């Protein structure tokens, strides 16, 4: 692989395998430039105060200072001593274009903060190893006090003092208004109190080898346009047999509603024919939903198989104690399958296939991984990646936000509504996902599109109901959500003829 590297010595072509430092130099240059652009776009007023730590995070700040200077912005740079070769190189580059670098201490910080319009925090990035040393803790306290008095802070990659791979916050950290993060979103940018302290997070993708991103469990956040492209469209010649035949396998005496809600979700997400297969009496939530009651699974499953398999199955919702055996059998059919609730069992590891979609909430994820729920919620990106490796196919780790993990990517959902935290929402989602699989989407695409469609429907339902949102309200809005997402792409514009 060859790259052009721009260095003070001039442009030269290097082989990245032989010269990884060249690639890092380019990545730091892009990172620093992205920070400078964000400062100019979001905080154009007053001098920019840049704080550079001793590692590569500080190097990014020094690059940003050079770009801001080139754009005519008044800059003030306070830096810690550094042994990092690229950070030292960028200090020399900044000085070479007339930039001044002064030592960072509490009095220089207080003085510079008094006249700054924005502080750029490049003290600590992903290389931070807790606990915070006292000298830097004092610097962060001064910084947060200035922030409380109205000085905005933009953090580079993650706010200093946060552990990038942790949603929880153990101690002191910078409280940023905005964070410019690189390559992919970190757990700290997306989840829990760490996300709150990160402020608005924007992603600057860097030209780095893809395995750098995979190796660190970094997420992407598909926007509505990307989701709209994935959502299926019916052709004029479609009929109910081509729009996806879906089976819902679930329900048990006492938990039949779960299967019915999944069926409703599948119908409203566009499946042509939906049948609920259950050992219990399923309530007639809508006459369009077909229901077949069976006496036992040992007989029912071979008969169902012989009757001709559907385009997709969702199983597990309220299925009860026989779920693992049923799931094993259905997985052997090799057709697109959503596994939810009772079918999320560690015994099924190794029985999945690429067209499987597993949909655990954090408690189910913890059971699958043999850990506690707090460990899952502390780092949902890593948990989703581990689940995908364990189960195969695609995993939707539900939460706010949900993570969709496929072999190649970790996608993190947008939107939804707090009112969606009520029983049955997950069953609806399983139905939606099965409908999308049945309409021909891959498990990875169905996961990304289905989670967003469900979330958008929740937002629309919340608008209509305000409070006391229930799963069937969300199902009722799935068609409107589909239209809304498609319109964001300019497809199905109601104003055009
Ligand atoms: N990974 C990549 O490919 C890229 C990384 N970049 C930047 O590099 C950063 C990571 O750089 P580094 O690995 O050099 O690490 P950092 O710069 O995040 O942190 C290392 C520095 O923090 C100090 N430090 C660590 N723990 C501390 C503690 N408990 N108390 C006080 N000081 C502490 C170390 O002494 C060292 O000076 C990223 O966050 C990002 O900003 C960018 O340059 C772009 C490319």
From TrEMBL:
GO MF term list: ADP-dependent NAD(P)H-hydrate dehydratase activity; ATP binding; metal ion binding; NAD(P)HX epimerase activity
YjeF N-terminal domain location: 11-214
Cofactor binding comment, as recorded: Binds 1 potassium ion per subunit.
InterPro entries named in the record: Carbohydrate_kinase_pred_CS, CARKD, Nnr, Ribokinase-like, YjeF_N_dom, YjeF_N_dom_sf
BP terms from Gene Ontology: metabolite repair; nicotinamide nucleotide metabolic process
Chain coiled-coil ranges: none
Domain YjeF C-terminal: 223-485
Residues reported in the UniProt entry to bind K(+): 57, 121, 160
Protein keywords: ATP-binding, Isomerase, Lyase, Metal-binding, Multifunctional enzyme, NAD, NADP, Nucleotide-binding, Potassium
Protein's UniProt keywords contain Calcium: no
Binding sites annotated in the UniProt record for AMP: 398-402, 426
One Pfam family linked to the record: YjeF_N
Enzyme Commission number(s) from the entry: 4.2.1.136, 5.1.99.6
UniProt key word ATP-binding: yes
Source organism superkingdom: Bacteria
Annotated positions binding (6S)-NADPHX: 56-60, 125-131, 157, 258, 318, 361, 427
Reactions the enzyme catalyzes: (6R)-NADPHX = (6S)-NADPHX; (6S)-NADPHX + ADP = AMP + phosphate + NADPH + H(+); (6S)-NADHX + ADP = AMP + phosphate + NADH + H(+); (6R)-NADHX = (6S)-NADHX
Cofactor: Mg(2+); K(+)
Record function comment: Catalyzes the epimerization of the S- and R-forms of NAD(P)HX, a damaged form of NAD(P)H that is a result of enzymatic or heat-dependent hydration. This is a prerequisite for the S-specific NAD(P)H-hydrate dehydratase to allow the repair of both epimers of NAD(P)HX.
PANTHER family: ATP-DEPENDENT (S)-NAD(P)H-HYDRATE DEHYDRATASE, ATP-DEPENDENT (S)-NAD(P)H-HYDRATE DEHYDRATASE FAMILY MEMBER
Family: In the C-terminal section; belongs to the NnrD/CARKD family. Belongs to the NnrE/AIBP family.
The protein's name: Bifunctional NAD(P)H-hydrate repair enzyme
Native organism: Deinococcus marmoris
């Amino acid at each position: 692989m060859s790259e052009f590297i721009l260095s003070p010595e001039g442009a030269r072509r290097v082989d990245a395998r032989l010269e990884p430092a060249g690639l890092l130099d380019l990545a730091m240059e892009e990172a620093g430039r992205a920070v400078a652009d964000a400062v100019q776009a979001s905080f154009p007023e007053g001098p920019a105060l840049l704080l550079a730590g001793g590692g590569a995070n500080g190097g990014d700040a020094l690059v940003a200072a050079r770009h801001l200077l080139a754009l005519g912005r008044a800059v003030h740079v306070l830096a810690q001593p550094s042994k990092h070769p690229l950070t030292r190189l960028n200090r020399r580059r900044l000085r070479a274009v007339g930039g001044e670098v002064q030592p960072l201490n509490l009095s220089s910080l207080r003085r510079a903060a008094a006249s700054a319009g924005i502080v750029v925090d490049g003290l600590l990035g992903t290389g931070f190893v807790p606990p915070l040393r006292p000298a830097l803790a004092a610097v962060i306290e001064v910084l947060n006090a200035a922030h409380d008095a109205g000085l905005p802070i933009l953090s580079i990659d993650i706010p200093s003092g946060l552990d990038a791979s942790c949603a929880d916050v153990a101690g002191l950290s910078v409280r940023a208004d905005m964070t410019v993060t690189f390559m992919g979103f970190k757990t700290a940018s997306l989840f829990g109190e760490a996300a709150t302290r990160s402020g608005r997070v924007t992603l600057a993708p860097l030209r780095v080898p893809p395995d750098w991103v995979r190796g660190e469990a970094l997420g992407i956040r598909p926007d509505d346009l990307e989701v709209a492209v994935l959502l299926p469209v019916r052709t004029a010649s479609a009929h109910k047999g081509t729009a996806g035949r879906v089976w819902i396998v679930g329900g048990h005496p006492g938990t039949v509603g779960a299967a019915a809600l999944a069926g409703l979700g599948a119908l409203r997400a566009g499946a042509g024919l939906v049948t609920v297969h259950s050992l219990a009496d399923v309530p007639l939530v809508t006459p369009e939903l077909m229901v077949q009651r069976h006496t036992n699974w040992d007989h029912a499953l071979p008969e169902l198989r012989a009757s001709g398999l559907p385009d997709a199955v969702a199983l597990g919702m309220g299925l009860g104690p026989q779920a693992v055996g049923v799931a094993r059998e259905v997985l052997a059919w090799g057709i697109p399958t959503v596994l939810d609730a009772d079918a999320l069992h560690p015994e099924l590891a190794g029985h999945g296939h690429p067209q499987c979609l597993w949909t655990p909430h954090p408690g189910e994820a913890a059971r699958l991984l043999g850990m506690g729920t707090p460990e899952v919620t502390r780092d949902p990106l890593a948990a989703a990646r581990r689940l995908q490796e364990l189960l195969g196919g695609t995993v939707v780790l539900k939460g706010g936000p949900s993570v969709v993990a496929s072999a190649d990517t970790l996608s993190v959902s947008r939107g939804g509504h707090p009112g969606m935290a009520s029983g049955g929402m997950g069953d609806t989602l399983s139905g939606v996902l099965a409908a999308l699989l049945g309409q021909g989407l891959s498990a990875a695409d169905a996961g990304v599109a289905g989670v967003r469609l469900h979330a958008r429907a929740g937002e629309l339902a919340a608008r209509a109901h305000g409070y006391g949102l229930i799963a069937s309200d969300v199902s009722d809005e799935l068609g409107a959500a589909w239209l809304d997402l498609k319109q964001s792409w300019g497809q199905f514009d109601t104003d055009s003829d």
